[in-house]
Amino acid sequence: MKFASLGSGSKGNGTLISHGGRLVLVDCGFTLKQTELRLQRLGVSGDQLDAILVTHEHSDHIGGVGSLARKYSVPVFATPGTVRSGKLGSVNLNLINGYQAFELHDMLITPVAVPHDAMEPAQFIIESHQKRLGLLTDLGSISPHVETCYQSCDALLLEANHDPLMLASGSYPPSLKQRVGGAWGHLSNQQASQLLSRIDCSKLQHLVVAHISLQNNSIDLARAAIDDCVRSVKRVIYACQDQGFDWLHIH
Fold first, then answer.
1. Which of the residues 51, 128, 174, 219 has the least number of beta carbons within 10 Å of its own beta carbon?
2. Predicted confidence (pLDDT) per residue in 114-137, tens digit
């Protein structure tokens, strides 16, 4: 299994997973033209996609899903709440009901309920041949359920969205500051660090720190917050908005 990113941040997100000759895209928050260019950078074209998984209906995650799925006839998997947002349009839709795990080709996809201000948000754990890839962004707090689900991953993409002091002193209006820093918003650097200290990271080959705010965070601040928790991790990557990150192989 390997994974890569089209980009990660408030201006657009998309994560590619490749396994056994199959390609799955999780989210697409870019225009169709941008998406095709970003796929091309990773050596992929839209007609190679086997499925698109959608985490929730915010535009930086769902904005490009409908146009991409329609152009290349790609099946879309989303929760009923995400579908009710009306932002997918007419697509080949497969409902994720009750956060039940499902098989997609030779991958087991486990949707995970997370606290985020969306209608029925889901993050995902993807497993095959005893390897676990965890994707965990867009949540404002770490529930016991989340902590349990993300134990013993072989690779983890984890949000460290903001530094609380930068957010508090920044230019966002008070309502947006409250939303981002609240229990249904986004994880801070310190919350990401807390999760890493409470889960089993002994198998972790790759940690990708993702969804880093351009306005309210920096890679240096995120790194300083989590450094003590990741000394045993073989590789730590900081995903960026423009380039995401290149293919990482899970062995």
1. 174
2. 999 999 999 999 999 999 999 999
The closest alpha carbon to 4, from 250, 251, 218, belongs to 250
What's the pLDDT tens digit per position in 196-220?
A: 999 999 999 999 999 999 999 999 9
Distance CA 40, CA 62 (A): 20
Residue identified by tokens 């995400």 is 82
- Measured CA to CA, the distance from residue 145 to residue 123 in angstroms comes to 12
Phi, psi (deg, nearest 5) at residue 2? -140, 160
Q: Where are the beta strands (DSSP E) in the chain?
A: 2-7, 14-19, 22-26, 51-53, 76-78, 93-95, 102-104, 107-113, 122-128, 131-136, 155-159, 206-210, 235-238, 245-249
CB 108 within 8 A of CB 86: no
Q: pTM value?
A: 0.97
